[in-house]
Each structure stands twice: as structure tokens, then as C-alpha cells.
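Write out the 3D structure for:
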Amino acid sequence: EDVPHPVRASRMAMTRSRRMALLTLEGVNQGLALVFELRGLGGVVAEDEQAGDEAAAPKAVAAAPTRLPREAYNDALEKMDAGDLDAASTGLEDARARAGGDGQLRSHATYNLGIVEARRADAREASAPEEALSALERAASWFREAVEVDAHDEEARQNLELVLKRALVLADAIERAAVLASAGQRQAQEIGRAHV
């Protein structure tokens, strides 16, 4: 059974524009493409610092000893786009932990942690299926939490269903491979005894 991969990565843009992008899914459904929306969440300083004066915004960011949670989030998305899933995961967890009362940031970071784990599963499915299965289980956990944070997030709900289906298919494949390997070993032992 072909199970499509998660549909989108959410992006908190530094501008208020909303953009459309095309994501070509890899893996189980080669060539399947889905359109998804990158969600802009507004200017970093204006919303994170509640700065009223746009001219003062660069000074507020420069004076800050650490990056703002939304900056950490955006940096993590760049790492994810570059394929550095470990750095992306660390950055998203950091942004999520420091989100404070920013529910939108917490929701998007949680969702994208699910995307990171789904991509990690994609990368390991052929070479290390058990690790891929663990990554799918972690992705399901993040998507489940994203649905709890925002009950109206249909994409998180859809991706939760997708990774659960993929995990079930992969678990079945791992089990079949183990059964076949065991049967092959028994057959090899029997042939070895017959030649002795």
C-alpha cells in the first residue's frame, strides 16, 4: 500500500506575506506533489518585542543577548531546508521551549518537529528500517501534540494519520523480513545437514 508522506513544513516568515510552494514528496509515492501554504507570522521584533517604532527594531534585536524565539525558529527551518535535521530539531525544540505565550510559534515548532522526524524516517527507511520506524513514532508524537495545541490544524491531523499508516506499513515490512530471514536460516541449516 502506498502511503503519502507529510504534506508541508510550516514557516514563520520575517514578513507578513503568505506564500504558496510546491512540495514534491519522496519515498513511497514517487512523483506525488502537493501544494501547501507557508504561513507567515509577522515581523520578529514587532510581535516578539511588541515594538511600536519600526526604526528602533534593529537596535532592539542587536541589543538582545540571545536570539528571539522566532529567529531561532526561522534558523531551524533553514537548517531543515539544508538537510541538517539534527540542528533543525535542536533549534525547533529551543524555539518551542522559549515560545512563552506565543501559541502560534509553539504550534508551528511542534508541527515542524514532526516534519523533521518524518524526513529522518525517509532518510533511514532503506538502510535502517528500525531507526526509521522509531523516527515515525516520534513524528506521530509531535503531530499528536500539534493537534492538541491547535485542534483546528487539519494538516497536523492529516500528517498524524499519514505517519501512523507509514509506521504500520514499515512495522509489517520489518516483521516480514524477520520471518523470511528466520526461514532462510532454517533452510540453510537443513541443506547444510543434508550435505554432511
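Residues 71 and 188 are 58 Å apart (CA to CA).
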